[in-house]
């Protein structure tokens, strides 16, 4: 990190960012972790290495790792018609997908033909409660009031889709006969020792001591203090930069044939190669190719939070940045972007 002249607190004040946490990877290991600011504005509850932030859509990177792990054991198949194993709901067939079936590869690369209905997939509402995935996909919850369907030929277009990852979640639950959260804990969290990662907010105030509150661009507390998204596979992860760094390191090790999840180099490589109609889309991550090689990235942006992970898997270098503030601008145009551009790969 080229931070000799980078004053974190000054830049945090400039952007009204309340709390910040960073993890850096070099040579395939955790090089450093840094943290700054507060978990809640107006208190003395400070951010620590183990402080938990809302990862929002970085959840999709985690879900992709799980899918590849299960496909390694032939529990799932990246290129099989998704309806072959879905039990509690099916992707409706129509003229667009009757011959070109929806697959996990399509869903993971946002090319399934599914487009999120306008106004859907908003933050948790305590009055409405959390939706079950079957009702959500049928369009029978306030979180998604239209049935999910295929709106273009699978593989022909890119449309970023939370609904697509809800389909993946339901498939995993149907096949494993367990809640998605339990599968993730057993298949990923435990093996990688991701001890600060969860999909559930603790019920008690004392247990929430290490959980960050969300803030708006003015540095004010977000409504409800802990806004979250009740779609675990798409955007429900709460975690730390250090835990996400462990996940990136696992991907790097898998590419070398040294996986703790028994993920083969062949399957790990599927994540970081161009998929379908867009060369910048991998499986659950986005790609950029430059003189250093392939860079992967994943962004999380929701009410009260913004975060980013970026890595060069083949160089075994990476960076995870998490904040508890929605700055109102794209990550690369705010504090996260400044830190990213000061990072020395």
Characteristic terms for this protein:
345 residues, 6-stranded antiparallel β-sheet, two-stranded antiparallel sheet, 10 helices
Tally of individual domains: 1
Query: How many whole angstroms does the radius of gyration measure?
Result: 19 Å
CATH homologous superfamily descriptor: DD-peptidase/beta-lactamase superfamily
Largest sheet: 6 strands, antiparallel
SSE order, one letter for each helix or strand: HEEEHHHHHHEHHEEEEH
Strand order of the largest sheet: 2-1-8-7-6-5
Account of the 3D structure:
By secondary structure, this protein is α+β, with helices and mostly antiparallel strands. The chain has a single domain (8-341), classed as 3-Layer(aba) Sandwich (Beta-lactamase). The chain contains 10 helices and 8 strands. The protein has helices at residues 8-15, 59-72, 104-108, 133-137, 162-176, 180-192, 232-235, 241-255, 265-271, 335-341, and strands spanning 19-26, 29-37, 53-56, 237-239, 286-290, 293-302, 305-312, 317-323. The strands form 2 sheets. It has a 6-stranded antiparallel β-sheet with strand order 2-1-8-7-6-5, sandwiched between helices. A two-stranded antiparallel sheet has the order 3-4. Strand 7 and strand 8 form a beta hairpin. The longest helix is centred in the middle third of the chain and has 15 residues, at 162-176. The termini are close together.
